[in-house]
Amino acid sequence: MENKKKLSEEDIKARYITPALNKAGWENDKIRMEYSFTDGRIIFEGDEHVRKASLRADYLLFDRSNYPIAIVEAKDNNKPVGGGMQQAIKYAEILDLMFAYSSNGDAFLEHDFITGKEKKLSLDKFPSPDNLKKRLKDSEGLTPQEEEIINTSYFSDSYSFEPRYYQRIAINRTIQAIAKGQQRILLVMATGTGKTYTAFQIIYRLHKSGTKKKILYLADRNILIDQTMNQDFRPFKKVMTKVQGGNIDSAFEIYMALYHQLVGQEGETNPFEQVQPEFFDLIVVDECHRGSARDDSAWRKVLEYFKSATQIGMTATPKVADGANNLDYFNEPIYTYSLLQGINDGFLAPFRVTNCFIDLDLKGFTPEEDECDINDNVIQQKYYQQKDYGKDITFLKRRYLVAYRITKMLKYIGRMTKTIVFCTDIDEAEAMRSLLTTMNADLCKKDSRYVMRITGDENEGKKQLDNFIDVDQPYPTVVTTSELLATGVDCKTCGLIVIDKEIDSMTEFKQIIGRGTRLRTDKGKWHLEILDFRNATKKFKDPDFDGEPESFENKIKSDHPYKKPASPDDHLKEDHIKYVVNGDSVNITTEIVSILDDDGKTMKTENLITYTKKQICKRYATLEDFVKNWTEAEKKKAIVDELHEYNVLIEAVRKKNPILENADIFDIICHVAYDRPAISRQRRAENVRNSDYFSKYEGTAKEILESLLDKYAEHGIINLEDVNILDTSPFDSFGKPQRIMKLFGGPENFEQAFRELENEIYKNIA
User: H-helix or E-strand containing 386?
Assistant: First the structure.
């Protein structure tokens, strides 16, 4: 009888778990093995980027395409049956599954989230697909009609891609909620996580099932509508129209519209009234944080007129502090996928913040009596603080310093890095454009679009917006703005965000950061740099930044009734003067460079080496603890794989430190975590040759062991443990693996010789 204790986890899966699943009716098309559902968070230092281990399920079982129903985690037979259960439960909760299983090849342990109970099952009693589907269906209480809606398939063609796990959850939960009759739905998804693609799949499935026939998609920017129609919504081309001039052509089925195109001027008839209130049966509001929840907003008028329609709000910011609380209208979100989750999963770019503290900002400014600015305006007597800079008073030397620091940053990270500079207002954005142009005259000489202003009042800049967001267009490269680029503009390669304006709203802060959170590793975009002159990034520490949305009562009403569509860069013009002062010498007194920690709140300055040491010591508190586990491990790769799960990135550490170039993995760990000298593989191999290890062998057997040692010195222990190593050169010249093992007296004796060789390699710890 086979000794399971000697089998690897992979052997257990192949010989026991997979056959048991197949026997229960889980055919291969319903099983996904080694299913990675995250990409792994990016860790970076300088220009070095590496990924942490992704989250990976041993088995993901599917009811049908894009409907996973259960997860199975496997362990080797030295672990108990439930050895993988806690991991299975964790993954099941992330993936929104109701059934989790663990197995070591002897049996299965089932965790049923519906009942909260666990039970042990023999290998031949694993539930069939029909069994799990029935249990799930019974718990959901679906009618045949509801089930038909839910069973409608996703859109798929040769150009489409499979939804990420969180998109699938958002889509499936929304479809199920609508099938059950829910009329107001809110989805909270961080900027850059594919809200538009999610909306498309929801609309496609509801439209295909016949549940929703006339559908309105609302946004607040023309560019958002055009992007959506040309990209994610392209399959709707034959039945889709863009509402122009407020005219709603009843011949189409999918309508794309800007909200202000549907709302008339004050005293005029609203264009949306040309159709009956029941005309639309589904409305999707993109970026619904932008005023749609205000009682007197334009979007609210549209939503209330078509109140019989199912309405879906999609936003990255479910809660705002200015009275426009979309939770009160749409109710609590049915699913939330936050910025922090996106970064930790490796789908969004992590960011590095450089906080620049300017002496003038720290001490403030009080003018002398009757002091005039450069325009001979007498400066009002008061104490001016950082929050007033750029709005009530501007210092030319401060402007110059900010522009100089931006230019210096670009020279460090790459001068062709797509950059957005957020300024206080349009005037400041124009002044910054001019300064940056002069400081980067060599590149502006090559193409005048290297630096441009893109604001609501400037048509030439707005015409270049498409080129700025195009990943294949280098120009414009650096753009200055005040608010126009704060939301909705999808610039995937934006690698630098500069903040030189006061940001009071958490919503605005999230949206500004969101301009740079997308990853484009194929274009060299691995992370986001944030250059902050206003300490706006202190909001990362605010509980509201990545916290759960909370409902609250509106306290502030809209400042004025809706009159006309306004660009976000438009400001109410007031009769006040902005003083322009040359100013005394201005300097950056302190700079703090930090990255966001795993908790999403702490800004840390820890480097890769320090981080790696901390992660190793989480698993092995002492050198003795690590050495004991290393020595006893049947396969050293198991230790390395386990540390990888703790996000210990050995090769990244090796790359950062030249003295570790030829060090053994064992020595890298000991050096980084426990301050031991790093020994090269060559030196360890030489120590073995100088010992009496080989004296007990002779002839071909000795040659084989010497060749194994040479392999170790060249490639390391993981290569040495490869099960196929005897099939490679130079071992294949000695004959087939069976013949080689026979030279040692059989497989067991060869295995013993190999173990002794490993022990001799690590005989000297340091």
Answer: none
Which token pair is 128?
A: 């069939």
233 pLDDT above the threshold of 60: yes
| Contacts of 711 by beta carbon, 8 Å cutoff, 6+ apart | 719, 720, 725
Secondary structure (H, E, C), 260-328: HHHCCCCCCCCHHHHCCCCCCCEEEECCCCCCCCCCCCHHHHHHHHCCCCEEEEEECCCCCCCCCCHHH
- Choose among 91, 48, 115: nearest CA to 649: 48
Provide the b/e sequence for 410-437 (b: ≥16 CB within 10 Å): beebebbbbbbbbbbbbbbbbbbbebbb
- Window from 204-208, 257-261, 493-497, 621-625 with minimum mean pLDDT: 257-261
The Cα-based distances of 359 to 321, 409, 474, 554 in angstroms read: 31, 20, 35, 39
CA dist., res. 215 & res. 239, Å (int): 11
**How does 441-466 read in b/e, with b if 16+ C-beta sit within 10 Å?**
eebbeeeebbbbbbbbebeebbebbe
Cβ contacts of 236 within 8 Å, gap of 6 or more: 200, 203, 204, 253, 254
Contact indicator for 532, 497 with CB cutoff of 8 Å: no
**What average pLDDT does the chain have?**
87
pLDDT digits (tens, 9 = 90+) for 557-573: 222 222 333 444 444 44
pLDDT digits (tens, 9 = 90+) for 352-404: 899 999 999 999 999 999 999 999 999 999 999 999 999 999 999 999 999 99
